[in-house]
Amino acid sequence: MYSKILSAFIVLTLNINCLYAQVNTDLIVLDVKVSGSKIGVYSRTAKPITNREAYDNQPAFINEKQLAFSAADDKGNHDIIIYNFESEKFTNLTKTPNTSEFSPSLTDCGLYVSAVTVEEDGKQRLWLYPTNFGEPELLYDDIEPVGYYDWYDNKAAMFVLGNPNTLVYPYSKEEVLTIDENVGRSIKRKPKSSIITYIDKNNPVEEDGAITYQILGFDIEKRTHHQFGFTIPGAEDFIWLNKNLLLMAHGNQFYYRKARDEEWIVEGNVQLQSHEGISRMAYSPKLKKLVVVMNRKTD
User: Fold this and answer.
1) Are 69 and 80 in contact (CB under 8 A)?
2) 157-186: b or e for each residue (b if 16 or more CB lie within 10 Å)?
3) What pTM value is reported for the model?
4) H helices, E strands: number in the chain
5) Alpha helix locations (H) across 113-236?
6) Which contiguous run of DSSP H or E holds residue 117?
7) What is the average per-residue pLDDT within 260-284?
């Protein structure tokens, strides 16, 4: 199991000199029920998976039993940890002294857990870590610095940090298409489709004193653009629960809607005295579990 450490701030040295200040976060799990176009969140089932003063974040289910996430070790590096829901045990997929791994995801082939890796020289590229604990492989040597991504057809649609940030998809070594510019960090494939969805930050709209953005999609196969309404005000993290249903959160409250609807519906919250502020989320339809990232409350 990974070690307990004091809270820390780290600097990721990027070509664009971005500074990421990290707060103490934990993973919280809740029971949920998704049926067609509705979701039921069982708020009273909320409980921490991790519970320490450190960075545990970026959850992603890799199968019906296991969750991958990024966690800070006792020296300030970040590793990919696998949590098993049956055994309630933690296992290090990576344990690297001189690099840090973020944003884990299962590849389409199922043989690797991918991760954005901050290398010793500061490069931030996408690497593949075999699920059998073999030697990791660099996927795209000339695409960096990568921030976030999702998979389609064994290729990654990648958020590349820059001025502006771009969303790219490598159809081949020779053709790396820029899908859009000035995009948000949520890069999500729409289930059972070839559409990569993302947040467009080019035309923000102010609503009730907070900013909302449009959710767009790009069909990798047809090379067509799609619109999926707007985010809830003041939030930027979204996930798909199925091919029709979107989920977001603000504060401790969840919101959902059909992809083609305009109005978000309030559904459930997280009731914990120790944590506040939902950000990233991951959903398992087989486990009927929702895992969310929340900040630890300070005294």
Assistant:
1) yes
2) bbbbbeeebbbbbbeeeeeeeebbeebbeb
3) 0.91
4) 0, 24
5) none
6) strand 112-118
7) 96
